[in-house]
Amino acid sequence: MPPCTLQQVWPAPLDVSPEQMALAALRHEIDVLDDQLLALFERRLAIAARVGKAKDAPSGPHLKLRPDREQSVLDRVVAQAAPDNREAVESLWRQIVGWGLARQGRVQVRVWSPVEPTRAFDGARLRFGDAADMKVARDPQAALAWAAEGHGVAVLAINAGDPWWIGLRREWGSLCVFDGFGGETPTALAVGRIDPAALPGGRRVLITAGGDAGDGSGLRRCGLDTHHGWSLSLTDAPVSLGGDEGCVGAIG
């Protein structure tokens, strides 16, 4: 019988400690999982590209963003995750959703935040993922005009010396607030040409005359900003977009 020509790659079993064998087995298991995750992720990207062309995707003047759908997907997967993993799962799924959206066209984001710009950018990056094309806006009015033309999303700071939000009741009626960043009390809002039917379920964003005194509607409100008799606030009441209540969007 001819001599064996195979070269031994791993050390002989006698030279491998039980700890090394266990570590090698765990690494192999991770490699297998990585291969499976990659295959599933690429399948999801392919389906996301098809969704962009499907009949139920927003069309016409609206951006291809479905905050309601994103909210339901995120809520579902986070609820299934172990409590210790929920923060990691939310961050991962934001990236997954963001790259899926990029297959329908990269989300363009303009950020205006003269105070703590890093905080606003971090919130926007977490929301839209690394796939989003994010740039600084020179002023809020330029960002609003850009968003109103349907180019993308404007993320604008509130309580930053410019009451840009009043314009959502006036010249920027085509724009909707659809998210907020900065914690339970937002310090920045995301606005864009969102299909009203696709707004997330959650607190409604109100712009009303009357400052902190309110407008007599009886809605319980959480104030965010005021300017010359105008008030920006949130309410848990299920008010409709537009109308006498001054609803201009929702925050999930």
Descriptors for this entry?
single chain, 252 residues, alpha+beta, five-stranded mixed sheet, 5 helices, Chorismate_II_sf, EC 5.4.99.5, chorismate mutase
What layout of secondary structure does this protein have?
Blueprint: H1 18-51, H2 67-80, H3 86-102, E1 108-112, H4 117-128, E2 133-136, H5 140-148, E3 153-157, E4 176-181, E5 188-192, E6 203-209, E7 221-227, E8 230-235, E9 247-251
Parallel strand pairs: 1-2, 1-3
Antiparallel strand pairs: 3-5, 4-5, 6-8, 6-9, 7-8
Walkthrough of the structure:
This protein is an alpha+beta fold and 252 residues long. The chain contains 5 helices and 9 strands. It has a 5-stranded mixed β-sheet, sandwiched between helices. It has a 4-stranded antiparallel β-sheet with strand order 7-8-6-9, with no helix packed on it. Strand 4 and strand 5 (188-192) form a beta hairpin. Helix 1 crosses helix 3 (86-102) and helix 2 (67-80) packs antiparallel against helix 3 (86-102).
Can you summarize this structure?
GO terms for molecular function: chorismate mutase activity. With 252 residues, the protein is of the alpha+beta class.
